[in-house]
């Protein structure tokens, strides 16, 4: 029996080997892995928060709901996240949740 939670891309499709390819124009990955709806239906251990601030540049980024729900279900599910201002990915410890200011991933 597989105890690993089922993951998919944010659009619900299967995770592909090339999902981490970066679009040079935006700095975004081709696809982002999140918990599938059946995993998210099991409930959350944190509130669902969609926006976070990059402590280095002060920009607030709002993420796709399925990514926010994945953080709420498993706060340590990601080691890095994207800053829309810097157009790059950084460690989650560089970001705080809006509006409460708690560190992303904690």
Give the beta-strand count: 7
Count of individual domains? 1
Low-confidence stretches: none
> Helical percent range?
10-25%
Query: What is the terminal-to-terminal distance?
Result: 29 Å
For the biggest β-sheet, the strand order reads 4-3-7
Oligomer: single chain
What does the largest sheet look like? 3 strands, antiparallel
Overall mean pLDDT: 94
Strand content: 15-25%
Structural class category: alpha+beta
Structural shape: globular
Counting DSSP H or I runs of 4 or more residues, the number of helices is: 2
Rg, nearest Å? 14 Å
Structure, described:
The protein has 106 residues and is an alpha+beta fold. Helix content is 12%, strand content 23%. It has a 3-stranded antiparallel beta sheet, with no helix packed on it. A two-stranded antiparallel sheet has the order 1-2. The chain is globular.
Index terms:
3-stranded antiparallel β-sheet; single chain; two-stranded antiparallel sheet; alpha+beta
Q: What's a concise summary of this model?
A:
The protein has helices spanning 37-40, 65-73, and strands at 7-9, 33-35, 51-54, 60-62, 80-83, 88-91, 95-97.
Write the layout of secondary structure elements.
Elements: E1 7-9, E2 33-35, H1 37-40, E3 51-54, E4 60-62, H2 65-73, E5 80-83, E6 88-91, E7 95-97
Antiparallel strand pairs: 1-2, 3-4, 3-7, 5-6
């Amino acid at each position: 029996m597989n105890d690993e939670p089922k993951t998919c891309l944010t659009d619900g499709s299967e995770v592909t080997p090339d999902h981490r390819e970066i679009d040079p124009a935006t700095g975004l990955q081709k696809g982002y892995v999140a918990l599938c709806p059946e995993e998210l239906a099991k409930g959350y251990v944190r509130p669902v928060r969609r926006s976070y601030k990059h402590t280095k540049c002060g920009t607030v980024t709002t993420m796709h709901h399925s990514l926010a729900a994945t953080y709420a279900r498993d706060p340590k599910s990601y080691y890095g996240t994207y800053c829309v201002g810097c157009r790059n990915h950084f460690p989650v410890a560089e970001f705080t949740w809006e509006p409460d200011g708690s560190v992303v991933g904690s």
